[in-house]
Amino acid sequence: MAPPGLRLAPTRLLDSSCSLKKTLQCSCSFRGTPTPSVRWRVGGAPVVMNHTGFRVTSTTLGPWANSTIHLTKPPETGTSLLCEGRNPEGTHTLTILLKSGRSSLVAQTFMKGLIRGVFYGAIGVTLLFLCLVPLIAKHIRMKQAKKIAAMKAEKSPKIRARQGLTMSLRPREPGKSRVTPPPEPRILDPLPQTSSKNRINRS
């Protein structure tokens, strides 16, 4: 009972927290007039002070009441933990949904493994790319060299044909004319003429 003249106040939750060290522990802090009492329920069942697997410590100071529960065993996934503060003026409750430490540990391990796998995979791909770059560059150079050689081979017959056509179209240089001098006239000696008289006598 509250002393006469004291202003009454319903129970109010001031603070709550949970932490995981060696064991899981949760705390609730209530305030009210008269000082509220604190109770815990796990999975809907009230927690007994000396219950196996749970340990509860409570303290009160004036209108404040603090209580902490220690779970010595890892809870099952989906287990509900209820903290209830009560006094004649009202009740205030807080429900906490527990998650198994094993499942969180498995999830953390999986995430760590996934991150490491992605990291090492990226390193491997980078190293492979760096090793393949020289081979790719060499292949490209060889391909370009073959292409240039083929283009030169295609151009060479055309160039030769053009050179031959140019040579055939060039005018030939006129040759120097040679003037053959006419043969020198020869002077023939006249035959001796016989007189008509001699011809008659011979006859």
Give a structural overview.
The chain is an alpha+beta fold. Helix content is 37%, strand content 31%. The chain is built from 2 helices and 8 strands, in the order E-E-E-E-E-E-E-E-H-H. The chain has helices at residues 101-169, 196-202; strands at 9-20, 24-33, 37-42, 45-46, 54-61, 64-71, 80-87, 90-97. The longest helix is centred in the middle third of the chain and has 69 residues, at 101-169. The protein is rod-shaped, with a radius of gyration of 63 Å. The model is unreliable at 195-200 (pLDDT under 50).
Short structural description:
With 203 residues, the chain is of the alpha+beta class.
Task: List the keywords.
single chain, 203 residues, alpha+beta, four-stranded antiparallel sheet, 2 helices, 31% strand, rod-shaped
Topology summary:
Elements: E1 9-20, E2 24-33, E3 37-42, E4 45-46, E5 54-61, E6 64-71, E7 80-87, E8 90-97, H1 101-169, H2 196-202
Antiparallel strand pairs: 1-2, 2-6, 3-4, 3-7, 5-6, 7-8
* Ends apart, CA distance between termini: 213 Å
- Shape descriptor reads rod-shaped
Report the order of strands and helices: EEEEEEEEHH
Oligomeric composition of the shown chains: single chain
Mean pLDDT metric: 76
Number of helical elements: 2
Largest sheet data: 4 strands, antiparallel
Strand content: 25-35%
Largest beta sheet: what is the strand line-up? 1-2-6-5
How many β strands by DSSP? 8
* Helical content (DSSP H or I, runs of 4+): 25-40%
What's the gyration radius in Å? 63 Å
Helix-and-strand structural type: alpha+beta
Return residue spans where pLDDT drops below 50 for at least 5 consecutive residues: 195-200
